[in-house]
Amino acid sequence: MSNVAQYDVESIRNDFPILATEVHGKPLVYLDNAASSQHPVQVIHAIKDLYESGYSNIHRGVHQLSQDATKAYENSRAAIRGFINADCIHEIIFTSGTTESINLVAQSYARPLLKKGDEILITHMEHHSNIVPWQMICEQTGAELKVVPISDQGELEMDRFAELLSEKTKIVSVVHVSNALGTVNPIKEIIDAAHAKGIAVLVDGAQAVSHIPVDVQALGCDFYAFSGHKLYGSTGIGALYGKEKLLNKMPPYKGGGDMILSVSFEKTEYNTLPYKFEAGTPNIAGAIGLGTAIEYVQSIGLGAIAAHEHGLLEYATSKLKEIDGLRIIGQAEQKAGLISFVLDQVHPHDIGTLLDMEGVAIRTGHHCAQPVMERYKIPATARASFAMYNTFAEIDVLNEAIKKTIGMFS
Amino acid sequence: MDNLRELYQEVILDHNKNKRNYRKIENPDGFAHGVNPLCGDQIDVYLDLKDGVVEDISFDGQGCAICTSSASMMTVALKGKTEAEAQALFKSFHHALTDEKQHPEDVPLGKLKVLTGVKEFPVRVKCATLAWHTFDAAFKKLKDEITTE
Q1: Around A35, how many Cα atoms within 13 Å sit in the side-chain half-sphere?
Q2: Does one domain contain both A83 and A114?
């Protein structure tokens, strides 16, 4: 608890200008962080400063601005390397986000490798972005998609995972933290089991990197994907980590500028890592903002953030459990700061609208995880998700707003 | 909060709790399955026509309070209406929720008027219109079948 006691949430909140706004005349209580987190002023300034005094296209420019922008862009890549402890900088590929990262691995790693009869192993708690790219690969190659089931608590059935991991399995793609349930999956165990059979593993870290420290070398994963906008950065930027020896063997995912060494109509030679996978002018400001966001997170410390968010989760869980007719969907032993719930009397969309009138922003719907909804026989859930800047007082506001909602519908 | 009361009026809450015509019709003349892919709401509409009049109409499925009560109120409003009256009511209801300007051909909405508060909540308009679009689809399918026979 000493970490939590020293954790200065008010000073963190002061760094996030949007938290001072009001919604429908009430102070904003922003609990939609699993969809997108807010920007600290440091990130906003980094992007603003770039456009006001440092912006230019990167790479190959001989003029000063281009060199400065290139340096800032590549510094962000270095920041990401340090953040997830990759072995070398060129193992970090900038993408538009987790979705593109997964599609890159699917198309560039899996597609050339797979043939009819091979299997791709995912889990029942994947986001659509870690389902659909694999279904596309299955259509293109004749491979088959296998799915690890989940328990009533929202945990992976690891004995079924062990059974499904077979000689036919060519890649395992699994979410680190479930966006619909909050479950933290035993990634290390999954990676070790897959590696014992020589199978590569992609981890979807979209919901993990802002909540728990990630060390890709300690995990040993082959690929790790995440987005900037859930990590206090902007939309349209994210990263893919891949092991150098795998990335080197993979063909480019997109063709265009920046990913080539030389082009003639007879033959094109591809660029080296990481540029081989970065065709076209990238999201320069987004990348620089993401680097700043990572520095900001590191300045507070992911350990301290995780402890704070865990405190919020425990407090909110105990409060919400006291509410009659409220059911928490996803009660895994290991959870990140996120609560999905349904009410007996009130549909999630009505909850969303009523909470909004109290200034409380949550997400309602299927959370791009329709198989999860189908698993628990519910059409949708209401989801409150926490970030480093949320407070215990905000949980009280959420709690009261839910009670008020029930009162209106009873 | 005034807006909210406007959205969740007593009549709406009542229809949500005590759904009218919430049942299947066996071998209906018309049927359609309506889905709002954004939120997962699903409404089935069953329709029986006799001599150009809506003899029976019912729905099932699941949705939010706005979606459910709109479906419930729709079935009450449409029962006994002629095909032309039903179509006119659908158009007028749709205009009332989505259009700023008055349409000269619009007919009075009667009790359905309580649903027009949804207009202040643009993301919820689709909740209120899902059942009506599903009815329209069921009706059009039925008409297509009749004309192609």
Answers
A1: 15
A2: yes
Whether the CB of B18 is below 8 Å from some CB of chain A: the reply is no
Alpha helices by DSSP H, A7-63? 9-14, 41-49
Amino acid identity of residue B81, one-letter, is: K
Same domain, A160 and A251: yes
Mutate: best of B3, B4, B5, B62, partner A, most A CBs <10 A = B4
In this structure, are residues A31 and A45 in contact, taking their beta carbons and an 8 Å threshold? no
- Which residue range forms the structural domain that includes residue B67? 2-148
| Number of domains present in the structure of chain B | 1
Statement to judge: residues A315 and A172 lie in one domain: no
How much of chain B exceeds pLDDT 90, in percent?
Answer: 71
Domain that holds residue A167: 44-299
Same domain for A353 and A327, yes or no, is: yes
Calculate the CA A242 to chain-centre distance: 16
Mean pLDDT of all residues in A11-32: 97
Q: Are residues A239 and A378 in the same domain?
A: no
Torsion angle of alpha carbons A140, A173, A127, A372, nearest 10°? 100
Q: What's the length of chain A?
A: 410
Element (H, E) at A340: strand A338-343
A365 neighbourhood in chain B, CB within 8 Å: 38-40
Of A259, A276, A299, the one marking the end of a domain is A299
pLDDT digits (tens, 9 = 90+) for B3-53: 777 788 889 999 999 999 999 999 999 999 999 877 778 999 999 999 999
Q: CB contact, 8 Å: A380 with chain B?
A: yes
Question: What confidence tens digit (pLDDT) does each residue in A172-205 have?
Answer: 999 999 999 999 999 999 999 999 999 999 999 9
CB distance B71 to B63 below 8 Å: yes
A-B contacts at Cβ under 8 angstroms:
49
Domain boundary among A265, A299, A333: A299
Question: Residues in chain B, how many?
Answer: 149
**Which of A354, A365, A409 has its CB closest to that of B40?**
A365
Element (H, E) at A227: strand A223-227
User: Would A35 be classed as within a structural domain?
Assistant: no
Total domains present in chain A: 2
Query: How large is the ipTM?
Result: 0.84
Using an 8 Å Cβ cutoff, are B108 and B81 in contact?
no
A333 CB burial (10 A radius; 0-12, 13-18, 19+): exposed
Sheet of A363-365, strand order: A326-329, A338-343, A381-385, A363-365
